Amino acid sequence: MAMDKKLSNKIVRDIKQKILSGALRTGDRLPAERDLAEEYKVSRITIRNAISRLAYLGFLQTLPQSGTFIADFRKDASLELLVDIISSDEEVDKSILIELMEIRRIFESYCAGRAVIKMDDTNRKELREMVNDMIANRKNPEQLVELDYKIHYLLMELAGNNVLRLLFNSFKPVYQFYLKVFYAVPENVARILPYYERFCNAAELRDDRIAAFVMSELLDYAEMATIRIIEKLSRIKIK
Predict the structure, then answer these.
(1) How many domains does the chain divide into?
(2) Which part of the chain is the HTH gntR-type domain (predicted)?
(3) What are the Cα distances from residue 13, in Å, to 7, 50, 54, 161, 182?
């Protein structure tokens, strides 16, 4: 059973990568179970299990008496598929990464304002210390990545929206990829730190509207700078 599951997972990864890379396109018909079993040198049951998993994720659609076809996963898929894609060690489509940044900008700007409303003196002190640490470590990209993540994690916790926090946690592999790419460029470091200082100032003044506005500006800049870098990459692997 363990071997069958391992083989099935390997087939899932292989077909999924062909779909994500464009080798298999929406509407293409998947070869018959018998042909796939011969190609992968496995039983038809193993193929059937792989197809079921891919259909569950939204990659495939089986039509009675017609066959199995590549589905439009961008249109019909679920959150589970998104998490599966961004947690994968395979190549990831650039457009998906860019769209994820747009989502992040929208919900984190909202959460930043909510977090400021709920902050107490201890939270504000913790935020100020992390921003000061970012300034002190401005020439250390690894430290900046860690501190940036901690700041946004704190804000998500304080915002108190469990669904958005689950989204944030699910996006962690992609988020850390963004940060590593972003902080590798010294100009980005010089541009982003003043935004964090302004956000911290707004938090200390308990001004949630200004805090949300500054966070939106911060994420706008980070998004555009990261997109410029991503678009130059020929291959993208999150892990």
Answers:
(1) 2
(2) 5-73
(3) 10, 9, 9, 33, 29
* Among candidate residues 25, 49, 77, the one where a domain is terminated: 77
Spacing of C-alpha 172 from chain mean position: 6
Residue 135 shares a structural domain with residue 186: yes
105 and 170 co-located in one domain: yes
Asked whether 150 and 130 are in contact (CB, 8 A), the reply is: yes
DSSP 39-103: HHTS-HHHHHHHHHHHHHHTSEEEETTTEEEE--HHHH--HHHHHHHHT-SSB--HHHHHHHHHH
CA distances (Å), origin 15, targets 5, 9, 116, 214: 15, 10, 45, 43
pLDDT in tens, 183-211: 999 999 999 999 999 999 999 999 999 99
Residues 112 and 71 in one domain: no
Q: Are residues 163 and 194 in the same domain?
A: yes
Q: Which of the listed ranges 72-81, 88-97, 120-129, 221-230 does the model predict with the highest average pLDDT? A: 120-129
Whether residues 10 and 71 share a domain: the answer is yes
Token pair recorded at residue 213: 């506005």
Average pLDDT over the chain reads 89
User: How far from chain centre, in Å, is Cα 134?
Assistant: 23
Q: Which residue, 67, 72, 69, 96, is CA-closest to 84?
A: 96
